[in-house]
């Protein structure tokens, strides 16, 4: 095996695999907040300019693979920093209906290759990658560098044996290294819903257990969770978040602790024999766990001054959203509300001290201030939801809202489900796929 073949961890969900021919960079996000100022990196030592300088210095073919469009994986500031750099660079991305990521990168004059499910792409001599789509616009990849095989699940929700076996059949190879998320990554109840948060956090450990049993990797890297909820609106969600320390104490993972390792930014690992790799990783892990633990003890909410958006502006934004959604789905959301599948959403706008109801049938209406509400939210966050195709999705991840009752979260998601489908390329521009998807939903 080529002695120069190595793996470098960078931050959060980003790592790099390279040999003499090429470098494969995964999900680069190193600076700034994500999800409408809802997430921050625990470690802020890695800088865009520094990573780019390292790439240039390598003087190799550079490939960058994005798992999905979320801003903690697809960092627009990093991409823009790459413009006009002297790098032989190609972006790799899953083939999607909307082609939004592809179109954005091409507009910035980058070379982009869309990969079909299971398509092998050669990065260099004895170096290849395959990716497969997963739920909600996500994807996972399998990387082979000489005789070492890496499965990167990133955020993919692989929560039971059946789902894991399906992936195992597709990759059809042994796995040396498994990269998988270990913390919750969305709204998980109001302040008082600690029992619910604890349950969700424990479920993450159950997922890793299932994945370890099915994929049977030699080495497990919990990652893609080195962030915290950083806004005053959502900082409380950190109270029961999983950490490397909690993972070590997890009863579900008792039988796999000798396979679990952590890395900190810029840690490097030569992909040598198993014995040498394990010894190196034991040393790196002790330092990495201390590193992450020290940083986590000092996290604080960021100070953000949120703009107050007027009620008239929100009413106009809803009208624009309403027209866009109904035109793209041939008034289907309106019909779904009439039959009760979607229900009007009552929203308490906290900084305007007003409660409104939004509906696909009745439009945007002001309610009595004492009316019960489904969702409590700031005007800027509601404006963000209505203004962006990914607005609801980002808000469900950043958790910058409260619910009037726990089940209201499902109602919130169902109301904005047309936006979710539109974000993923369904609608009038893709009629056959849209009808097929709709029929599947009705059957299920």
Write the layout of secondary structure elements.
Blueprint: E1 6-11, E2 14-18, E3 22-26, E4 39-41, H1 48-58, E5 61-65, H2 76-81, E6 89-94, H3 100-107, E7 111-115, E8 121-124, E9 127-133, E10 139-145, E11 148-154, H4 161-171, E12 177-181, H5 194-215, E13 219-223, E14 227-229, H6 244-249, E15 268-270, H7 274-296, H8 311-328, H9 332-338, E16 345-349, E17 354-359, E18 363-367, E19 375-377, H10 379-387, H11 391-398, E20 402-403, H12 408-415, H13 417-423, H14 431-443
Parallel strand pairs: 3-5, 5-6, 6-7, 11-12, 12-13, 16-19
Antiparallel strand pairs: 1-2, 1-15, 2-3, 4-14, 8-9, 9-10, 10-11, 16-17, 17-18, 19-20
Helix pairs in contact: 4-5, 8-10, 10-11
Catalogue the unreliable spans. none
Number of helices: 14
Straight-line distance between termini: 49 Å
Q: CATH homologous superfamily of the largest domain, by name? A: Ribonuclease Z/Hydroxyacylglutathione hydrolase-like
């Amino acid at each position: 095996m080529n002695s120069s073949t190595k793996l470098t961890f960078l931050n959060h969900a980003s790592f790099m695999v390279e040999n003499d021919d090429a470098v494969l960079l995964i999900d680069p996000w190193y600076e700034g907040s994500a999800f409408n100022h809802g997430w921050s990196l625990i470690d802020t030592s890695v800088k865009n300019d520094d990573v780019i300088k390292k790439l240039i210095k390598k003087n190799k073919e550079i490939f960058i693979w994005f798992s999905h469009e979320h801003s903690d994986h697809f960092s627009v500031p990093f991409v823009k920093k790459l413009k006009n750099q002297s790098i032989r660079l190609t972006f790799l991305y899953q083939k999607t209906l909307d082609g939004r990521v592809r179109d954005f990168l091409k507009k910035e004059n980058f070379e982009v290759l869309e990969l079909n499910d299971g398509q092998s792409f050669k990065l260099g001599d004895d170096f290849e990658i395959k990716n497969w789509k997963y739920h909600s616009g996500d994807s996972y990849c399998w990387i082979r560098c000489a005789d070492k095989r890496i499965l990167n699940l990133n955020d993919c929700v692989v929560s039971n044996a059946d789902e894991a076996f399906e992936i195992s059949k597709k990759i059809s190879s042994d796995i040396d290294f498994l990269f998988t998320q270990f913390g919750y990554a969305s709204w998980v109840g109001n302040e008082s819903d600690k029992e619910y948060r604890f349950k969700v956090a424990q479920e993450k450990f159950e997922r890793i257990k299932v994945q370890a049993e099915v994929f049977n990797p030699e080495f497990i890297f919990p990652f893609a969770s080195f962030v915290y909820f950083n806004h005053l609106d959502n900082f409380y969600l950190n109270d029961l978040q999983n950490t490397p320390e909690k993972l070590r104490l997890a009863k579900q993972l008792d039988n796999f602790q000798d396979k679990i390792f952590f890395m900190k930014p810029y840690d490097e690992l030569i992909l040598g024999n198993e014995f040498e790799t394990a010894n190196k990783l034991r040393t790196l892990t002790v330092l990495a766990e201390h590193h992450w633990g020290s940083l986590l003890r000092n996290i604080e909410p960021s100070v953000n001054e949120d703009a107050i958006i007027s009620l008239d502006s929100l009413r106009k934004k809803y009208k624009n959203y309403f027209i866009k959604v109904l035109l793209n789905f041939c008034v289907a959301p309106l019909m779904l509300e009439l039959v009760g599948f979607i229900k009007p959403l009552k929203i308490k706008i906290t900084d305007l001290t007003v409660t409104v109801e939004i509906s696909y049938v009745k439009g945007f209406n002001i309610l009595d201030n004492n009316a019960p509400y489904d969702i409590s939210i700031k005007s800027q966050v509601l404006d963000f939801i209505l203004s962006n195709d990914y607005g609801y999705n980002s808000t469900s991840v950043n958790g910058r809202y409260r619910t009037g009752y726990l089940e209201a979260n499902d109602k919130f998601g169902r109301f904005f489900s047309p936006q979710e489908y539109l974000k993923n390329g369904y609608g009038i521009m893709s009629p056959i796929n849209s009808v097929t998807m709709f029929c599947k939903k009705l059957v299920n």
